[in-house]
Amino acid sequence: MLDNAEDLHVMQDWLPKLQPARLLVTSRRENWPVDMGLKVKKLEVLARSHSIELLCKLAARLKDMPDEQLDI
């Protein structure tokens, strides 16, 4: 997973190195070049409580950590 990917040149450099893996990339950037072969899905930003819930599901070691410590 690549989180908050914004730099086009970094993505163009890294994507070929990560093939043939399936990769989830999150970004607020909306205009990616078609030739990069990305399947873009527009999503809404998660509410803070939902983002913490998802984070703790994906990284179980964080579930007992206070929310304030997850604010990075």
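(ticket continues) Second input and output from the same batch:
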Amino acid sequence: MERIGRWTRLKAGSEEPYKEWHRKVWPELLAMNSQAGIRNYSIYLRGRELFSYLEVDDWEAAMKFLGSQEVCQRWQELMAPFMDAADAISPWQRLEEVFHQE
């Protein structure tokens, strides 16, 4: 099992629409995340900065699986205009875990 911490930023003015979309995440998208082995997935917002945490059995396999799913592609395309990144489809920077306590 891998614990993944990720960071990115939203474009100015995108905070409310981003939060609204995440209040009504598509059930089929949640099902795809679960099928990919993702669990305990949380996203936190501070100003325009996003911190995301999740646990997954195999990060590379999960990303490959999700990248091949049409529903995931549609969600990423929907979220892309909100992201403040050169690569709006995959803007996340994976963070190094320095400490963990069970």
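Agent notes: Strands lie at 2-9, 38-46, 49-56, 93-95. The longest helix spans residues 70-79. Closing as not reproducible unless the customer responds.
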